[in-house]
Recover the amino acids of this structure.
């Protein structure tokens, strides 16, 4: 029980911060455009604003936890996510949505930065790889839940859908709050230990995030406006992405526990390359394979990288994880704004944005295969 309670509570924060605060927007994207709340370029901009907010949350999460403690910092992230969803129920124009989607991203960044290391530090060493898989499975579970929940909520209109997501966040917050992980503070000698640079690990993970911008923002829109599927089918595609993510994170934790996270990472990035290549196939059934593979690799890589951070840095794993998550967020934010401009400039060309994603994913795979101390297997 001492393992499951902090792991599942931390998983709930990732469910909200990543699965909902970031990714529930993906099945809402075509509905926002169809209802005239934003145009295609504006909808892409909202995705980019969310990623920029995510970066701010990642960078500020550790400092927030130092001031408030991990449990209260997790409360703050959940509260901000709830408020952002409620605010988006108001049709306030593009600027309004940019603000609140950015703040939703900040909530996700805080929760993502803190949940994994806190859960790892709260369980026995032998269970840490498994804990990373359980925690990060919250992202895929949230994605799948959003894919199922959003179409039902949309029957009541966009405002009802946003408000319904706010209620879902509140319920999860109440359920998980009594079991927040509360890791002990590091001893002075541990704090003083040098933190490895881990440049190849950071580069591979950052490029992985950059390559995943296209499916994480445009996948549902590709299904609807790119492949001509009804919006219900687009939600199914997003559910498949989420289910793949659950499998990728849970399996990632187990595989990393057996062969090491640094050895497992190239496997996950190879699957990511395959997923992006399949998304470019101009035949809609290819999406039924591209979606789960994209979730498996793109979200599953988080569990593998979290385990690798523990291998590289030991008790200072939280520092490496913050750096890795920041690299991921910087890469995603920069690429998201670039892809939003590219999408608008090419007349909403999905081939253009997914082609860029494929190239970046291939670069991530190459970086993970580079030889060096940081990416070598466990000693």
């Amino acid at each position: 029980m001492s393992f499951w309670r902090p792991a599942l509570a931390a998983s709930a924060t990732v469910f909200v911060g990543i699965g909902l605060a970031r990714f529930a927007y993906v099945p809402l994207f075509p509905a926002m455009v169809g209802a005239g709340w934003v145009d295609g370029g504006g909808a892409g901009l909202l995705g980019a604003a969310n990623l920029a907010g995510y970066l701010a949350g990642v960078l500020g999460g550790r400092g927030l936890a130092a001031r408030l403690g991990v449990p209260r910092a997790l409360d703050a992230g959940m509260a901000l996510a709830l408020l952002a969803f409620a605010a988006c129920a108001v049709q306030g124009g593009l600027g309004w949505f940019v603000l609140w989607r950015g703040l939703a991203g900040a909530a996700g960044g805080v929760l993502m930065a803190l949940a994994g290391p806190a859960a790892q530090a709260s369980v026995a060493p032998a269970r840490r790889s498994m804990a990373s898989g359980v925690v990060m499975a919250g992202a895929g579970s949230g994605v799948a839940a959003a894919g199922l929940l959003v179409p039902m909520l949309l029957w009541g209109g966009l405002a009802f859908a946003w408000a319904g997501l706010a209620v879902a966040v509140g319920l999860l917050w109440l359920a998980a709050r009594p079991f927040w992980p509360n890791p002990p503070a590091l001893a002075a000698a541990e704090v003083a230990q040098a933190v490895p640079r881990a440049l190849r690990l950071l580069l591979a993970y950052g490029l992985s995030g950059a390559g995943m911008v296209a499916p994480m923002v445009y996948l549902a829109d590709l299904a609807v406006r790119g492949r001509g599927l009804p919006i219900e089918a687009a939600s199914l595609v997003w559910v498949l992405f989420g289910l793949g993510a659950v499998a990728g994170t849970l399996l990632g934790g187990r595989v990393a526990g057996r062969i090491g996270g640094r050895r497992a990472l190239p496997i996950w990035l190879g699957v990511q390359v395959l997923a992006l290549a399949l998304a470019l196939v101009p035949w809609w059934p290819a999406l039924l394979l591209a979606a789960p593979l994209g979730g498996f690799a793109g979200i599953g890589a988080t569990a593998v990288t979290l385990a690798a951070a523990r291998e590289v840095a030991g008790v200072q794993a939280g520092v490496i994880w913050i750096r890795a998550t920041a690299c991921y967020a910087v890469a995603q934010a920069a690429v998201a704004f670039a892809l939003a401009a590219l999408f608008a400039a090419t007349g909403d060309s999905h081939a253009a944005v997914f082609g860029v994603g494929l190239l970046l994913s291939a670069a991530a795979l190459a970086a993970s295969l580079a030889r060096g101390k940081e990416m070598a297997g466990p000693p």
User: Anything to note?
Assistant: The radius of gyration is 19 Å. DSSP finds 16 helices and no strands in the chain. The CA atoms of residues 249 and 300 lie 4 Å apart.
